[in-house]
Specification:
Structural class: alpha+beta
Shape: elongated
Low-confidence stretches: 23-32, 165-170
Oligomer: single chain
Distance between the termini: 51 Å
Order of helices and strands: HHHHHEEHEEEEHHHHHHEEEE
Number of helices: 12
Number of domains: 2
Mean pLDDT: 78
Number of strands: 10
Strand content: 15-25%
Largest sheet: 7 strands, mixed
Radius of gyration: 28 Å
Strand order of the largest sheet: 1-2-8-7-6-5-10
């Protein structure tokens, strides 16, 4: 629902409040009637876009109609009758307008409205894409982001084919970029320029990829299994995300976290070269690092992929973080230039 409808509702609410205040002076206005208005405004504040608000307009119109009938029978004053008639007509017209407006709303816009409780940051622009709380997504959005994650993971694991999903109105190309063999130490890729031109829903723009090697996965797996140490990291992650590498390393060492575990964690969090923002670091530590993925990596001797990417929907940009298995380790594929131009840097033995 756009701003003009909000404006209409607020103006209507103010008019109704004014009328109720005046009508309270008349003999047939009682406490129940006033209580109904309090409930009306309470529901208005919390359910502006919900069907309950449309229904409530009808119920309030009926209550005003009842008040009008009682007033005519018990105290037929012209001013009271006029005020009640205006309120009843206004509420009925507003209810009809809201019902019509709801029927005319595009289903995609309804989905966007659902996200108002899951958007943590951003305004949907290229500079500040929406960042969602992926733990509280509506079902359709969860399915959509799972689909985007699948596309990104598929591309980074060497896919190179056209991808279409007509159910989500998505048509894209999953293209693997430059291939690097024998990347036993892993590396990282950072977007530099030439972001994708917005063409259709689901256009992908890859910003950062970190490729974690199998030996490093083993170290991270050990760290994740140590509940006490991982809890220490999570408790200190807000401060840690704003620190330099040296400051963060010193902090974790004070909490008895080993040198190797500190190094591999900072490699994943991009703290050595500041390749990830503090908000992404927070999101990674709080919502990713699923132990089951690392158990699978240990079983099949795989690495791990961490990718920060954006996709378009309804003309807006949304940012997501992918954590998935690097199934073709030690062969490494950069993102295709279709997703943006970037540079790749392999991790050296003395990288951290």
């Amino acid at each position: 629902m756009n701003r003009k409808w909000y404006f209409l509702e607020y103006v209507g609410a103010l008019i109704c409040a004014f009328m109720a205040n005046i009508e309270y002076q008349f003999s047939y206005m009682n406490g129940i009637h006033l209580l109904l208005w309090i409930i009306y405004f309470g529901v208005f504040l919390y359910f502006k876009e919900h069907i309950l608000y449309c229904v409530l307009n009808v119920l309030m119109a009926l209550s005003v109609c009842l008040s009008l009938i009682i007033g005519i029978i018990t105290n037929p004053q012209p001013v009271c009758i006029i005020f009640d008639s205006i309120m009843m007509i206004f509420l009925l017209v507003l209810a009809i307008v809201l019902f019509i407006k709801r029927r005319a709303v595009n289903p995609n816009n309804q989905i966007l409205n659902e996200l108002k409780y899951t958007i943590r940051d951003g305004n949907g622009t290229v500079e500040h894409p929406y960042i969602l709380d992926e733990n509280s997504l509506p079902p359709l959005w969860k399915e959509m982001i799972d689909e985007q994650n699948h596309k990104v993971s598929y591309a980074l694991n060497g896919a190179g084919q056209e991808y279409k999903d007509f159910s989500l109105n998505i048509e894209d190309y999953i293209l693997a970029g430059n291939k690097h063999k024998k990347q036993e130490l892993g590396g990282y890729w950072i977007y530099q320029s030439d972001m994708p031109v917005f063409k259709n829903e689901g256009t992908l723009w890859i910003k950062t990829v970190i490729y974690l090697s199998y030996p490093d996965c083993q170290l991270l797996y050990e760290l994740l299994k140590d509940y006490k140490q991982w809890q220490t990291i999570q408790k200190n992650i807000l401060s840690l995300s704003k620190m330099s590498y040296e400051e963060g390393y010193s902090l974790l060492r004070k909490h008895q976290i080993s040198k190797q575990h500190c190094q591999v964690l900072f490699k994943v969090l991009g703290m050595t070269d500041y390749i990830l923002s503090s908000s992404v670091i927070l999101d990674l530590v709080k919502n990713k690092f699923h132990l089951s993925r690392y158990q699978e990596a240990m079983e099949y001797q795989e690495g791990m992929l961490y990718c920060v990417y954006c996709f378009t929907y309804q003309g807006q940009w949304f940012q997501c973080i992918l954590e998935d298995n690097w199934k073709i380790y030690p062969i490494l594929y950069e993102p295709s230039s279709y997703y943006g131009q970037g540079i790749y840097q392999s991790f050296g033995k003395d990288f951290v």
